[in-house]
Amino acid sequence: MYKSHSDTESKLYDPLINTHPGVGMPHSASYWVDTAGSAPQDDGPVNGAMDVEVAIIGAGYTGLSCALHLAREHGIRAVVLEANQVAWGCSGRNGSFARISGGRVPLAELIQRYGASEAKAYFEEMSAGLNTVRGLIREGQIDCDVQPDGVYKVASHARHVDGLKREVGLYNEVLKYGATFVSDTQVHAVHGGAESFGALYMPDGFSMHPLKLAWGIHRMARAAGVKVHVASPVTDWHSDNGHHRLVTPGGVVTARQVVVATNGYTSGALNKATAGRVLPVHSQIIVTRPLTADEKQQSLVGSECMFDTRNLLSYYRRLPDDRILFGGRSAITGRDAEHPRHRQNLHDALCRKFPALRGIAVDYNWGGWVAVSENSLPFICKVPGLDNVFSGGGYAGSGVSFSVQTGKRLAQMVAGDSRPTSIDFLHRSPKRFPFQPFLRVGQRMAYVWYRFKDAR
Ligand SMILES: Cc1cc2nc3c(=O)[nH]c(=O)nc-3n(C[C@H](O)[C@H](O)[C@H](O)COP(=O)(O)OP(=O)(O)OC[C@H]3O[C@@H](n4cnc5c(N)ncnc54)[C@H](O)[C@@H]3O)c2cc1C
C-alpha cells in the first residue's frame, strides 16, 4: 500500500503515500535554512546494533525537548532517531510564531466541549508551553532572533468584528487573560493595506528563527548526554516481550521504551498502532524580497505575529530584514504541493491584503505537513496496544510552543508519571479517522467550501 520514498516520482514526501521520509535528505530550501548559519554537530547515522532504554523517533521540537527533559530532569539519556536532518520536518520550516496555542478549536467551542474549568486548565498548559520555550532560550542562550511580543488576530472582514469582541470577552471572563480588542484605526498603526477591520490582541507570543531554535534545543540535549542519530529512519518495527526492535538502514536499535515524535510526518507504515491517527495537512509559505520603506509603511509597519479570521486563514509577519513571510493552506497532496498555482494562491492573498505589494517578487517558497487529529487538539498519550510506547502531536499547525511542552510532558510519562497534567482530553489517544481512503476527498471539498465562504 505504501511506497518507499525512492519508488515515488513525487518529489515531496507524502505520509499517506510513502513508507518513511527518506534517508539523510537535505533540508528543504527555505529562508530559514539560508539564514541559520551552520548546522550543529550530530551523532551521524546509526552504525551497528544498539541497545537502549529509550528511543525517540523524530528530531523536531517534540523529540528534542523530550530527550532534553529526560536527560536533565529524570537522568535518562535517550537516543533520538531522525530520518533526515535535525528539525527536517515542521520544526525547521514553520511560520515562526511561538504563541499560546495548540490545535485548532475556537475558544467558544473548547469551552462548550470540555467546560470552563478544563478549558482554563488547557489554556494554562499552553501558556506554560510558551514559558518553557522562553526558559530554554534563556538557559541555553539560544540566539534565535526573538522579536518583541504581540499577536494580532485580524478581522479580515467587517462582519468578523463582533465575533472577535465576543472572543475577547471569553478570554477575559472565563480564562482571566488580558486579551483586548483593538479598533481598525489602532490596527492600522501596525497593519496597513486592506482587510484589517480590527483585531484581537494578545500581549504574549513572539516570532523567532525556528530552525535556530530547534538547533539550540538540539545542542542543549547533546550537552546533556543525548545521542541524536540523523539519516536513520525507522523502516520496520518489531515488538515482543517488552522489547522494541527499531530497524534503521545502519542497524537495529533495541529499546525498552519508545517515544513517537513524528507528528505530521508519521507514515502509516511506521506502526499499525499509530497509523491513521493524524491527518497530514500541507501548509505553505512564501517570503518576498525586502520591502522598500514606502512598501513597509503601506503594509506591515509592526513586526508582531499576525493571522486573519478567514476559514482558510493566512499568517504573516515582517522579518528582521523587512521581507514579508506569508503562509496559508492550498495544496492537498505531496504530489501536487510544488505546483506553481499554490504559490500563486498565497501571492494573491498577500496582495489582496496589501495592495501596495502587487507584483512583488517572491524569493522563497516552501511547505510542510502539519498534523490534524480527529478532535483538532493535541495529544500526549500512551499508544494503545503497545507496551511502553508514548506519543505526542496533533498541534494542527499551532505547535511551536506546545510541541516543546509536549516533549517535556512525554519525558514525565516515560519516567513513570502516567498523567502529567489534569487535562483529560490531552492524555487520550487520538481516535483513528473514519473512512481513511476518502480523507483527502473530504479535505478537498472542505477547501472548496471554505474558499466560497471566504470569498463572500
Ligand atoms: C509551513 C508551516 C508553518 C507553521 N507555522 C507555525 C507557527 O507559526 N506557529 C506554530 O505554533 N506552529 C507552526 N507550525 C507547526 C509547528 O511547526 C509544528 O507543530 C511543530 O514544529 C511540530 O514539531 P514536531 O517535533 O512534533 O514535528 P516535526 O518537526 O515535524 O518533526 C517530526 C520529525 O519526524 C521525522 N520522522 C518521521 N518519520 C520518521 C521515521 N520513520 N524515522 C525517523 N524519523 C522520522 C521527520 O523527518 C521529522 O523531522 C507550522 C508548520 C508548518 C509546516
Automatic annotation (TrEMBL):
This is Glycine/D-amino acid oxidase. Keywords: Oxidoreductase. The keyword Manganese does not apply. PANTHER family: FAD DEPENDENT OXIDOREDUCTASE DOMAIN-CONTAINING PROTEIN (PTHR13847:SF281), SARCOSINE DEHYDROGENASE-RELATED (PTHR13847). Gene3D superfamilies: D-Amino Acid Oxidase, subunit A, domain 2 (3.30.9.10), FAD/NAD(P)-binding domain (3.50.50.60). It holds the Pfam family DAO. One of its GO terms (cellular component) is cytoplasm. It comes from Pseudomonas mucidolens. Residues 54-413 form the FAD dependent oxidoreductase domain. The keyword Oxidoreductase applies. One of its GO terms (molecular function) is oxidoreductase activity.
